Amino acid sequence: MEHILQILTDLNIPFEMQEHKAIFSEEDSMDVEILLEGMDVKNLFVKDKNHNYGLVSMALHERADLKKIAAAFGYGRLSFCNTDELMKYLNITPGSVTPLCIMFDNECAVKVLFDRNFEGKKVIVHPLRNTASVSISFEDLKRFTEHFNHDYITADVYKSEL
Predict the structure, then answer these.
(1) pLDDT digits (tens, 9 = 90+) for 131-145
(2) CA dihedral defined by 134, 135, 138, 144, rounded to 10 degrees?
(3) What's the pTM value of the predicted model, to 2 decimals?
């Protein structure tokens, strides 16, 4: 983790960090009080049947609409990636997925989609491990993504509640 903090520092990306117990799921986050400023983020690593991969970052307590996400990516029907794919493309284990792990996708095989509601805000993400969180501005997260040669899209990713 110290490596990612050094990268953020080298890129002149200000951040605040908080240590906490491990968070593996949205449910686990319920009994962890994050005192950082920003939107809590969850991340989904998805693929379609043609093995097109996508990393989606969105607000923690919202429901993802996989049809909207697939359309935004220009992919077919989506499913979630397995542990081996997470390690192969993002060098990360389940429960620690973060938009920061895009730095490991040297082949640029993974498309990145950010929740459009991040605009103008700070976001709270894991620093490559699920026992800490960092708060950075969305502008800096986009800059980080671009630094590692990834384009990104922003889109509405939420399931409409009727």
Answers:
(1) 999 999 999 999 999
(2) -30
(3) 0.92
